[in-house]
Amino acid sequence: MQDFKVDFYHALETATSAAKEAASILNIYAQDHSKLSISYKSRNDLVSQADKDSEQAILQVVRERTPEIAIVAEESGTSANLDESQYTWFIDPLDGTTNFLHGIPHYAVSIGLVARAGTVLIPNTPPLEVNTPILGVVYDPNRQEMFSAIYQDGCFLNGQRIYTSQAKHLEDALLATGVPFRDFSFEAPYMRGFKEVMHHTRGIRRLGSAALDLAWVACGRFDGYWEMGLAPYDVCAGTILVREAGGTVSDIYEKEPWPQSGNIIASTKSIEEDFGNLIRQQL
């Protein structure tokens, strides 16, 4: 495995530039959907030329500026150096493809960076005990909102420090979720959890972009979020955003150090226990 120290700010600049390049392509396609070719990866799992072209724009930037870092990208798959690299980019060029294709202006570019267990990120500190998201960028081109976070350095929205909400009790919380749309194997426990949340909170929103759901938890618009059956590139960047904004993110099944399998629960620390118990009791 390669042994090198990541330059956090170079990596952040790389991810930010890549996200903006991707967004410029999405903006062009958003003006005229007739230019889009659309195909199906599986039931209700769409991919368009916008996804592919925006991803290629991201890959060009990250490969040029951080060639030593491995890549896991939604449309292109995994790079050959995954097993040798201490660090891996997780790239979703268009989170919220269905919204995008229907002309709903709620989608984002999501780019996260994960460091392997054993990596020393900061001099004179212990190495990481588990694989850990250490940098994340989520860019909303419709609102021109750039969410970013670096490990132990806070979370920011367009350069201004942000924090999770001040909600103290679950009954005062507004939560976000994503209902099963592709894999219905967990439909029954999910719907049990949905019903419990519906009766014990201020409300639930389903907006169609996991990356933005997590970014909105980070900036306090939502107090919590949960979903099942996602992919690692859907949640990688959002995980570090919420954690650095003062919130918590975990695997619903409590088996992974971050929700790499796509079963995620995130919230402010004040409601973490009650929210977690409410969801996990239904699994």
Automatic annotation (TrEMBL):
Coiled coil: none annotated. Pfam families: Inositol_P (PF00459). It catalyses: a myo-inositol phosphate + H2O = myo-inositol + phosphate. Mg(2+) binds at E74, D92, L94, D95, D234. It is an enzyme of class 3 (hydrolase). PROSITE patterns: IMP_1 (PS00629), IMP_2 (PS00630). SUPFAM superfamilies: Carbohydrate phosphatase (SSF56655). Gene3D superfamilies: 3.40.190.80, Fructose-1,6-Bisphosphatase, subunit A, domain 1. Its EC number is 3.1.3.25. Signal peptide: none annotated. Keywords: Hydrolase, Magnesium, Metal-binding. GO terms for molecular function: inositol monophosphate 1-phosphatase activity; metal ion binding. GO terms for biological process: inositol metabolic process; phosphatidylinositol phosphate biosynthetic process; signal transduction. Its cofactor is Mg(2+). Belongs to the inositol monophosphatase superfamily. PANTHER family: INOSITOL MONOPHOSPHATASE, INOSITOL-1-MONOPHOSPHATASE-RELATED. This is Inositol-1-monophosphatase. It comes from Oligella urethralis DNF00040. The lineage of its organism: Bacteria, Pseudomonadati, Pseudomonadota, Betaproteobacteria, Burkholderiales.
